[in-house]
């Protein structure tokens, strides 16, 4: 259940050299750079490309605001707004990467104002006091535009533990836990995913039989069937969890998810998201394995070696058209 108490947390991707302090004096942000920052945020993944967010620049503090746009959300599949917050968290991650790429230190606050529940996060642009330039987030900025995904089978080999360890460390730094499911757990997770797809298909058939129009999130393609992923015989499924299940945790999960996806692209690894079971409350709770990682499952990530090499874009890396960008002063 969501928590009404905001989590006034501050997150920094980079703290500068030991002994040095950052300054939050207003950064100088030109229109071209602002457009690039917003474009990076908009490139974040969201369920069915719903893009349930808006952006606003506070011109006084040169702080970017990430606000919820619930009218763009998927209300039947996401009545509590969990997927909305996860998507917004992914957008925040991209903002962090882009801000660092252009030489500032990103300073993130989650749910900063109790009186503005739609304000999910702010991203400040801190200038290092010694005038240095922030690292470019290990080249992740370029990965924002190149991240490939696939619903087709991946090549046969499983990912080595060393690569999975890199992803787990990144998720941990963002306040989440990522682990690789074993064979038995993978089979259980895939059964739950298949059950979710069966229920959704049944919903569509019921709406069709009564002449009704299914909700946007449950509409099938023109051939009447929802696409079903065809998986390899031994898929690598990574499970992303958080210790709690509040809005702040969903936002952290979104940041961790996008961080892992960007790193996967940098390592030449393809990924696809298995979110179907998360859309059904009973199936979502059944995803959890308290013996392995106590907490709340926020996403299942299928990982596999890429075909075309690191960071190669293609038809499966298509990005939604940018939307939700508001000029200074707009709401």
TrEMBL record:
Stretches for region Disordered: 1-22, 197-227, 307-331
Annotated protein name in UniProt: LigA protein
InterPro entries named in the record: Nitroreductase-like, Nitroreductase/BluB
Bias kind Basic and acidic residues: ranges: 197-226
Gene Ontology MF term list: oxidoreductase activity
Highest classification ranks of the organism: Bacteria, Bacillati, Actinomycetota, Actinomycetes, Kitasatosporales
Superkingdom of origin: Bacteria
SUPFAM superfamilies the UniProt entry points to: FMN-dependent nitroreductase-like
């Amino acid at each position: 259940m969501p928590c009404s108490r905001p989590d006034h947390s501050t997150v920094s991707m980079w703290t500068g050299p030991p002994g040095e302090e950052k300054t939050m004096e207003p950064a100088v942000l030109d229109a071209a750079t602002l457009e690039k920052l917003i474009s990076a945020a908009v490139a974040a993944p969201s369920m069915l490309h719903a893009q349930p967010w808006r952006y606003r620049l506070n011109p006084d503090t040169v702080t970017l605001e990430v606000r919820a746009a619930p009218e763009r959300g998927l209300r039947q599949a996401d009545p509590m707004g969990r997927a909305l917050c996860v998507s917004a968290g992914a957008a925040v991650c991209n903002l962090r990467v882009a801000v660092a790429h252009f030489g500032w230190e990103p300073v993130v606050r989650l749910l900063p104002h109790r009186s503005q529940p739609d304000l999910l996060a702010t991203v400040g642009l801190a200038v290092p006091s010694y005038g240095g330039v922030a690292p470019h987030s290990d080249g992740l900025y370029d990965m924002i535009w190149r991240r490939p995904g696939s619903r087709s089978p991946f090549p046969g080999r499983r990912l080595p533990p060393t690569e999975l360890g890199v992803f787990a460390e990144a998720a941990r730094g963002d306040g989440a836990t990522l682990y690789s499911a074993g064979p038995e757990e993978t089979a259980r997770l895939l059964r739950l995913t298949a059950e979710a797809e069966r229920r959704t298909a049944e919903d569509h058939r019921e709406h069709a039989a009564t002449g009704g129009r299914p909700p946007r999130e449950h509409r099938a393609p023109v051939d009447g069937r929802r696409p079903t992923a065809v998986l390899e015989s031994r898929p690598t499924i990574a499970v992303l969890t958080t210790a709690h299940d509040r809005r702040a945790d969903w936002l952290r999960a979104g940041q961790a998810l996008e961080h892992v996806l960007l790193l996967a692209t940098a390592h030449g690894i393809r990924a696809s998201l298995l979110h179907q079971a998360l859309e059904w409350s009973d199936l979502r709770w059944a995803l959890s394995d308290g013996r392995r990682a106590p907490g709340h499952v926020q996403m299942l990530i299928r990982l596999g070696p890429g075909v075309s090499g690191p960071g190669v874009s293609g038809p499966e890396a298509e990005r939604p058209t940018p939307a939700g960008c508001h000029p200074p002063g707009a709401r």
